[in-house]
């Protein structure tokens, strides 16, 4: 895997990342740090990438478990150290999984497998952060949420 990150050279703190697959991602800093607030901060991108990694796993695992999954959202809430390096110290993942007749034990198993075995990003981040998770299941037939 490869990625090239380039400072745009402007007076601000905007960077363009080109991934090995040829996609472009823009990142920027906060105005108080010289940025212009035009794009996500680099650490926000790390958090978003972790959410994408684990959501991908959960959907794939549930499909392989023959669950009728229709949607998967994950909200990540994090805390960072107050001093440099400002690593993540806590990250909570809350999944909202939508589908028909989803089995709560299989949803919980998919989330656990992602965090313990498959999601490289969350496994790396757990070296500095306490990682927790919760989930809701929304049945597309009943349109009611089941909390776990």
From TrEMBL:
One Pfam assignment: OsmC
InterPro entries found in the cross-reference section: KH_dom-like_a/b, OsmC/Ohr_fam, OsmC/Ohrsf
NCBIfam families: PRK10738.1 (NF008009)
Name used for this protein in its record: OsmC/Ohr family protein
